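Sample intake — DNA-binding response regulator
Collected from: Mangrovactinospora gilvigrisea
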Amino acid sequence: MRVLVADDERLVRTGLRAILDAEPDIEVVGEAATGAEAVAAVRAAGTGTGASVDVVLMDVRMPELDGIRATELVAASGAAKVVVVTTFENDDYVYEALRAGASGFLLKRARPEEMVQAVRVVAAGESLLFPAALRTLARGRSGMGSDPGPASDPAPARGLTDREREVWRLVAAGLSNAEIAERMGVGPETVKSHVAALLAKLRVRDRTQAAIRAWESGFVRP
């Protein structure tokens, strides 16, 4: 797994590189001090003029081009997955980065093993979700109240089958395909098919976007 570390603090970049390069299946192929440098590195990889990148660890507050816009450009290219690395989990910047296409976020105070696992999870095509934090962010941005009433039936849910609705709720809760399969008593491939159909019907890029849509629309409530 090839990783690009983007952060305007050299000490943070050095620390992340040391943690990730110590793993036999992960290689840090580059560093970026600005959002513009991160986007340029990913684009270079896409044209074959630079090292290919699987995952970008992206700080949200950087000069020249902030991490939100950089995330949007990287995600739109489809060349690499993005994990936002942030100091505070309940940060509007984090939520905007997730909406821009990040596959999840990671706190800078996370333990080394958590950082390694985050890269592996996202590189494998899963989303790195923290439902409690995402719920708080979504509620703050969408004006959701704290009333724990029954889930509503918003427009995005009306074209879904019962199985797809169940999968959507579990995705919003942060469960992986394997965990959803165990919960529903079906095989992982069946869950994978349901998730693919769900994303297509919701017209969202990935599981993170599906989870955000669930909270913002009121389909899933606290």
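Post-analysis note: The chain has a mean pLDDT of 84.
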